[in-house]
C-alpha cells in the first residue's frame, strides 16, 4: 500500500530531526570544517570528488572516512591509516572513475582497492556523496530492521558479523534501497527539496532512536516505481 499521510508526516519529521554531525576536516589547517546543513556538506564533498584534481579527491575520500567515523574514538586513526596507505595510482584511478561512474558503481569503486573502502558501508557512502539524488547509504545499522516482525527487503541483505559484503546479491538490495528512497523523495517530498539521501537519513534516524517498528513500516510501504 502507498504511504499514508501519517507515514509521510512521520518520515518528514524524522528527516528534519536527523542530527548526525555536519562536520568535515581541513587536513592542511588541521582543524574541523563545520557546515550548517547536510546539503552544504554533501555539495562540498561532491564538488571535490568530481573535480578531476587528485589532491582534492584524496582529501574528499579522507573526509568520507572522517565523517563516517566521526562519533567513534578511533576516527582520526582510521583517517590516518587511509592517508598513509592510499597510493597515487589508486587516487588517480578514483579521479578517472568518479565523473564517469555508472549504475550502482559498487564493484567499480571496490576494484580500485582504496583503504577503508572495501565493503558496503563505506563504498555506499562514497557512492551516495557522488550522487545523493539517486544513490544512498546502506549501513549496518539499518540491518537492525531485520529484528522487526515486518518483513522488508533488508531481510534479504547478506551480512557477516562485522560488515556487509559487496556481491551481486547485495548490489541488487542496494539498488532496491536507493530506488525506494529516490521514488519516495520524488513522490512525496518533491516540493520540500528532499532527495533520496535525505529519505535514507530519516530512516537511519528512526533506527538510531530505537523506533524499529516505525522505520520498518515506512520501508515496507515505500514506493518503488518502475
Keywords summarizing the entry:
2 domains; single chain; 226 residues; globular; 54% helix; two-stranded antiparallel ribbon; 2 strands
Describe it.
There is one protein chain. By secondary structure, the protein is mainly alpha-helical. It has 2 domains: 5-19 and 136-221, no CATH class; 23-130, no CATH class. It is built from 10 helices and 2 strands. The chain has helices at 5-17, 38-49, 54-68, 75-85, 88-97, 106-112, 120-130, 168-188, 196-208, 212-221; strands at residues 23-26, 31-34. Strands 1-2 form a two-stranded antiparallel ribbon. The longest helix has 21 residues, at 168-188. The chain is globular, with a radius of gyration of 17 Å.
Query: What separation lies between the terminal Cα atoms?
Result: 15 Å
Query: In percent, how much strand structure appears in the residues?
Result: under 5%
Radius of gyration: 17 Å
Q: How many individual domains? A: 2
* Helix coverage percent: 40-55%
Number of E strands: 2
Q: What structural class do the secondary elements suggest?
A: mainly alpha
Query: Helical element count?
Result: 10
Overall body shape: globular
